[in-house]
Amino acid sequence: MSRTLYLSPPSFDGFDGGAGARYQARREVTSYWYPTWLAQPAALTPNSKLMDCAPHNIDLAKCLAEAKNFDHVIINTSTPSLKNDCKVAEAIKAQKPDTKIGFIGAHTMVLPTETLKASPAIDWVGRKEFDYTCKEVAEDRDLSTISGLSYKNKDGKIIHNPEREMIADMDVLPWVADVYKRDLEIEKYFIGYLQHPYVSMYTGRGCPAQCSFCLWPQTIGGHKYRVRSPQNVADEMAYMKKIFPQVREFFFDDDTFTANLPRAREIAKKLGPLGVDWSCNSRANLDYDTIKSFKDNGLRLFLVGYESGNDETLTRIKKGVTTDEMRRFTKSCHQAGVVIHGTFILGLPVETKETIEQTINFAKELDVFSLQVSLAAPYPGTELYEQAKLNGWFVKKDKGDILHADGLQQSTLEYPEASKEEIFEAVDRFYRSYYLRPKPILRIIKTMLEDKDVMVRRCREGYEFFKSLNQRKSDLAAARAAA
Q: Taking the complete model, does pTM exceed 0.85, yes or no?
């Protein structure tokens, strides 16, 4: 077994490469998701190391110094970071030419040939679920024998091996806890709406929802929710509580943890005796009794994708939930005392000035504790991407150009009744009109007065938040000047 480095490379300042289903980008405040998709194959691979550069402030020089010690380097890439990741791969190859370099991620699954052609430094790419693909590469097997892999042969010809079967029994995968403990400083990971420090993990993969914009279910995870057993999840949670006594919250990063409600209820019952705070992704369609039962067993927060306040838009993106259902769910959460962080997207098909205002007003009506406003990100492999190509919604010829030079999102789609500038500007207006109201301000002040550490953190986040809004204005002005 050769030494293998699982690498999330240095990129834009503050770049969150661990974000999967929505988009990889720099956030309004310092935010980093755990690189669980790298930690899982690392847990399978003896003599390996996981290096997550951005949260740990590891620059290119330090990254290269570490990479010298490994025979294989496996890089997690994405559509917006591909060009940067290729440069890192080329630098690794330049200092040690016999290093085998592989790229994994949704981009490589959708565009394996194009990814291999992106740089001469890339020896192979993984397709779909890549855990055992990576393990077999690390075992120095002949690349031609490894399922789920595309590679360049000695003549430079690109070969696509047969597909690898998806993992059916998720309990066969080792826990990521020990990799986190060995290779990561958990205090480096921040999410604005989660208590600090936090730890995230997956209890299953795949999502039965058909949302047209969501990346991972349409590429790697699939639409079948494949899960770990409740006891397996509870056992790892108990173990994490033991090895990370400083952790204040655990987050289940499954695309939709509540997709299998009987299982979710069973897990909740097993977590209650552990006495931990936990949070998860949920659709806005649970009833009060279910929400209350979760709350009684330690649930603190739901991360909910509301996306839009316009029902026609929700139907168009195949959200599967109406605004009325969202209202009932949100009211039930308020009654049960469950906090909500809501996410919204501007620029979904076919946005207009009117639908933007409907979404902003809908968010104010829901009045969740906190929210995030994204721009529609049409990744290759998603239905949204194909719709945008078919209808001519892309602003630029380079369809992978979805970030500004500073790493913040940019508008990549526009419509007859909403230009890219109008959609981009609406993000700033959305944030200001939502947060600069008495209720959100008082909520934030209350949390600051209750905890000195939270006060320091909120002050930092407030500074970063308004700084990012000003940066958006600069990005917009630069784009207009370039046009």
A: yes
